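Field: COMPLEX_INPUT
Field: COMPONENT_COUNT = two
Field: RESIDUE_TOTAL = 655
Field: MODE = joint
Values follow.
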Amino acid sequence: MATIQLDSVWKVYGAVEAVVDLSLTCPDGKMLALLGPSGCGKSSTLKMIAGVEEVTRGDILFDGRSVASLEPGERNLAMVFEDYALYPHLSVFENIAFPLRLRGFSQTEIDKRVRQALALLGLEQWSGQGVKALSGGAQQRVSIGRALVRDPELILFDEPLSHLDADQKVYLRTEIKRLQQESGLTSILVTHDQTEAIAMADQVAIMNGGVLQQIGTPQDLYAAPANVFVANFIGEPPINLLTGQISTAGAQMHVRGAGWSVAVDRAIAAQLSGALSGSEVILGIRPEHILVAQEGPDETSIGARFFYRETRGDVDVVLVDLESRDAAAPVRLAIETPGPMKIQQGDPAALRFPVERLLFFDAGSGRNVLPSLQA
Amino acid sequence: MSASIPRAARAQRGVVLFTLLALGCTITLLLPVAWMATMMVKPEAEMFARPTVWLFEPTLAHFEYVLEAGFLSSLATSLVVAGASTALVVLIGTPAAYAFARFEMWRRDDMFLFILATRMAPPVALVIPLYLIYAKVGLLDTHLGLILAYLTFNLSFYVWVLRSFCRDVPVELEEAALIEGYPRWQVLLKITLPMLRPGIVSSAVLSFIFAWNEFLYAFMLGGRTVKTLPVAIPTLITAQGVKWGEVAIVGISALLPVLLVVFTLQRYIVRGLTLGAVKG
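Field: COMPLEX_OUTPUT
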């Protein structure tokens, strides 16, 4: 096992900067997720770590030793692919034995190791079969077996679950996590699915447009996102973002937008006005943090009208439109409440934003200006 | 239930009709071949008797003539020329197609189009220059000359077709093997080539058939000592008339190797011709 370190890594294809000055560390025995939308550079990063793509600039270190100029085969790592990448002309057994054959293991040792892997992944009954007949989940388990069988220093998972059915997905997610923790495997997971990243990884690195946005534990990313992009990417339903202005009426400071206003106390207000580049602020509040009541608003609450209710079984997600003079472009918020809630479209609602749950982002840069508030 | 019976019956009738149609087409297509086959052993006198004589005393006279006239050596020449040029095409073309499919290189797409462009000129336009060059370097009327000529034609076709087969081999498979530690040439041998086999076989068969049937180049660049079957057949049009029985024998024996190749490699060819056409 090894500590994996990326040091100012760049990947440039012609004029396209796929990865920009990326530095991050995956501690020994942990799982790091690279999370981001497609085209964010996470797969390029993985391929550079694997060695199938060259590093344009910067260095990659395994336990402090540079591997950037090594061939993929010399890096002692294994990879699990999105499309499984099993060799279609070989049986399940031979697919798993493939990496061992090259290393000149004896037949008895190969037998022993492959049987172990098959047992670990519950694949014994398929051993002699071709891989094409297997279900997606079983194919991916074969691929994991092939990765585990030669004790690599690092396992790379490239979107390992994205082609699987929902039940297989959840099953294999747990399975991978269990294997990873039990054997203390250093692993890097690439995914576009925040649920996967949060459920599996110890650390999550969020990327966008080739640039690392934030790296931290799933809890960090949820509670104190570094910027609007991260806030928006983590959480389902996504966070509500409202653009507003800071206004001071006497001693009380407010953040006001179209049809809403939130009073902020003096300590926060002082920090806010110091940190913002202009007077505009983007207020973030997660759907599960808004308090909603089925009544007309009073002085301390914000008026809105119900628009739609979506039942999720355990909770309700209700959509409300803020009451605003500009009816053509209503501000719509999603709220998660422990339902069931009986509503009609157009019913009045009163919303409360708990101040301790609010996130403040600079409207110009999108940066979280008060990350310490949540952390 | 009541509706399903007539539907099943209708489907069955459809199958019967289709089979009859296919049978009709096959018979229509094979009849001339069968007729040609009877000509091999038909005495000269009954060759064009009207009405056609179906029952006759078979004769081996035509075979004797064919053997005496040295057609066996033409058959050997055809096999050598078509076989060797196809083997070279596969040997040179496979790595080329793979490189065009996988590697970044300077002006790759332009070069690729340039390779195809060698097939765009009508063959007849190139045969005179080629003749002059061959005359200079002493390649006229040699096996090597014909092999090289077919190589140039088939190579561009082969590379063009096989590149798309190469592209259909998922790059992840190769990456997986690279990560396992296999060097690039072993990845090519152990992973890529086995998956390319249908493509290689079907394109090679097409190359072989082209070289086997080709007349113009074989006639212009060979023709005296190096005589392939398509060139040899017209020599049966003699001053005494066309030797139809012999033409039939040579024609059928020219057909057999191609049939043999196609039938033995059929499962690859069918897979090769449908691969890429139907995406899963």
